[in-house]
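Duplicate of #3305? Posting structure anyway:
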């Protein structure tokens, strides 16, 4: 599995070292949660942090935009060094255009769905997107409980993407740990985001290895 540690659960006073630790431990992506205090009831960090971390890591920078008006921000995150930018379906008035505009910058585009959002909103962009992120918690905070009811949505998405000629990654995000990840993988996910499971461990290498082996 592709493992994407979420920096949200790291100690923000030592970010550079913690990014280096997950990279050394075999992580594939670095998941960067951008929250604006409007789309979600929490505020994290902006493009400047992505820009500052970029020279220190070869990890794929996977930017999860939990902001209103994502069209106003994604280009800045691309310039800052994002490799993948994911926008929320619930925040986009013209999702197809937003996805196309992200891809025109030469990076990958993802679309994210909250747990209560049905797959129907993305049927007509599946031909365009590189990744679909299915939230397995309500976005806004790390350390929440995995919502099992999202699993049939993962299965359905897997069926839909299997019919496409190109690869579309399925990312799950929220409450992923050694107990919940196997079910998500069985349902069809191939990218596992994990915040508290990775950064809450004494050694980040252990949870990363557990997820990688799935
Ligand atoms: O996008 C989000 C939360 O909104 C996530 O990326 C969290 O950061 C995941 O944290 P854990 O649930 O794994 O602790
Ligand atoms: Fe996230």
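Output from current build:
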């Amino acid at each position: 599995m592709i493992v994407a540690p979420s920096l949200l659960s790291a100690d923000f006073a030592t970010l550079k070292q913690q990014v280096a630790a997950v990279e050394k431990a075999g992580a594939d992506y670095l998941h960067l949660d951008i929250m604006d205090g409007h789309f979600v009831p929490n505020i994290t960090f902006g493009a400047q942090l992505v820009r500052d971390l970029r020279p220190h890591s070869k990890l794929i920078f996977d930017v999860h935009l939990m902001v209103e008006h994502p069209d106003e921000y994604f280009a800045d995150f691309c310039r800052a060094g994002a490799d993948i930018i994911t926008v929320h379906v619930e925040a986009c008035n013209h999702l197809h255009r937003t996805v196309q505009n992200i891809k025109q910058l030469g990076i990958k585009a993802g679309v994210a769905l909250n747990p209560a959002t049905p797959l129907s909103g993305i049927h007509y962009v599946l031909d365009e997107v590189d990744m679909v992120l299915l939230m397995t918690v309500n976005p806004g905070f790390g350390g929440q409980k995995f919502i099992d009811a999202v699993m049939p949505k993962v299965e359905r998405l897997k069926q839909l993407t299997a019919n496409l000629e190109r690869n579309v990654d399925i990312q799950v995000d929220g409450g992923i740990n050694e107990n919940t990840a196997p079910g998500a993988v069985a349902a069809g996910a191939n990218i596992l985001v994990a915040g508290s499971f990775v950064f809450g461990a004494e050694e980040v290498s252990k949870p990363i290895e557990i997820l990688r082996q799935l």
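Confirmed duplicate; merging threads. The mean pLDDT is 98. The first strand starts at residue 2 and ends at 5.
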